[in-house]
Specification:
Length: about 230
Amino acid sequence: MTAGVEKFAGIGMTSARTRARMVERLREQGIRDEVVISAMEAVPRHIFVEEALAIRAYEDSPLPIGAGQTISQPYVVARMTELLRAGRDLPRVLEIGTGCGYQTAVLAHVASEVYTVERIASLVAKARNNLRALKVENVRIKHGDGSGELGEDLEVDGIIVTAAATKVPAALLRHLRVGGRMVLPLASRDEDLRGVQRLTVIDKAPDGIREQSYDAVRFVPLLPGLA
Ligand code: SAH
């Protein structure tokens, strides 16, 4: 057992049961995709939060993960993953905003390959440790700025952005194959970057871009540059 897992061994005993309850709640909240439900059931969320908060890991609320950032509430993680999948297999996914790596671990269950980018170095290190502790092997983590060109020749089937923007980042859309989908929290004006946004789905169709809005959410803003 690795240090990261041992640390939480005490609550690990009950975590499978609390997680089953969390999944029941997700169903009640309207999550229907069984592939997503299984992923939420499989990933131990308590590993990703500070030890003092581990006891609250399965509540449906966002929690602090350090560096002023938050891990999204389980419903939002499940909802974004469900929207991204749209009932299809996802060979390759790009995530912007790794944070502690929880959403990444969920994506690793529903996609063959996950490429994730985080701008804060301390969170990159934290996510690497967390994913290593869980033996997640189909993820590549990059310390980088995901608001612009990634400087890599990468084509993906889905993109998930876990930080809020007022515009769809055009540079990212270039990495999405035709027929692929992007899910992100979009704010209608600058003031809402620190307020309420809408989960937005962007479909890259052969004849252009289609956009649809869903749930109201609250994410931290997508910021430029490295930290
Ligand atoms: N999905 C994460 C939570 C994300 S919080 C989890 O499960 O823990 C949003 C994250 O986006 C933060 O860690 C923040 O540092 C990161 N972020 C903000 N702007 C970014 C950018 N331009 N490129 C990469 N990451 C960014």
